[in-house]
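Hey team,

Filing this mostly as a record. A colleague (T.K.) asked me to run one chain through the structure pipeline before their review meeting, and I want the input and output archived in the tracker in case anyone asks later how it was produced. No errors, nothing strange. Just documentation.

Input sequence:
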Amino acid sequence: MTKQYAVVGSPISHSKSPIIHRAAHRVLSLDWNYSAVEISEGRLLQFLETLDDSWHGLSVTMPLKLEATRLASELDPVAQVTRVTNTLCRTQQGWKGFNTDVFGIQSALKDSISSGAPRVMILGSGATATSAVFAVLLSNPASKVTVVARDAMKAKQTRSLALDAGFSIDIRSFKALYRSLAAADIVISTLPAGALDSYATKLGRNWFFKPRGLFFDIAYSSWPSAFASAWVARSLPAVSGIEMLIFQAIAQLRVFTSGDVDAALPNERAVELAMRDSLGLI
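Output structure:
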């Protein structure tokens, strides 16, 4: 029986997960099927209850990451501390939840967050913003993290999770956006594609504004985004969310093949290159 996997969420038509997972399956000689399934918020349990024994794992995207956390029979340590689940793997006890977004962000930023005491600004207050907070602080507890959010309540929930784990973060409203940007060594946007376009227009007109660090845009559907272009115009580095997508998928494949997020895949570099090639990046 062919093993079934899928990425689930809404909207889902833009997802590149089927492309990169299928490319990895070819490298790893896995006769698996990986699809995309549109599931709206509040419908994940209903979907899980329809799955037969051929289903072994799910990649979970918005708006289902918190719902997946609630439904998981067990959580890996990162999903437990973040309360965010982007991977469900079937076990004898039920569906175990993992958070591979943290690994994906850490791998995408590599040395940028691992040394010194960088000032990191995170835009947004949803599940991915929480993962970004922990990706930074677990890599480098000396980092100074500021969350700039429009939803103060959600941002406070993220701060509470950070405090429970022994970390401290600042919260600011979007009124402080430009001042916060100017002080940041790294800016991570977890906002939907296009959400920063109006701010980017203002940045493009203001040559007195001088950001100084790297910009990482987790949204990848339109790259470079207008905000990323404002960075590039000032000869500053901008990183696409495709990088996070690839590395979090590698971590998912570790889970799907071995149940262990820390167990490297056979010939993992070849898997990464195949994923990049499937997206036309090499």
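Quick notes for T.K.: The mean pLDDT is 93. The radius of gyration is 19 Å.
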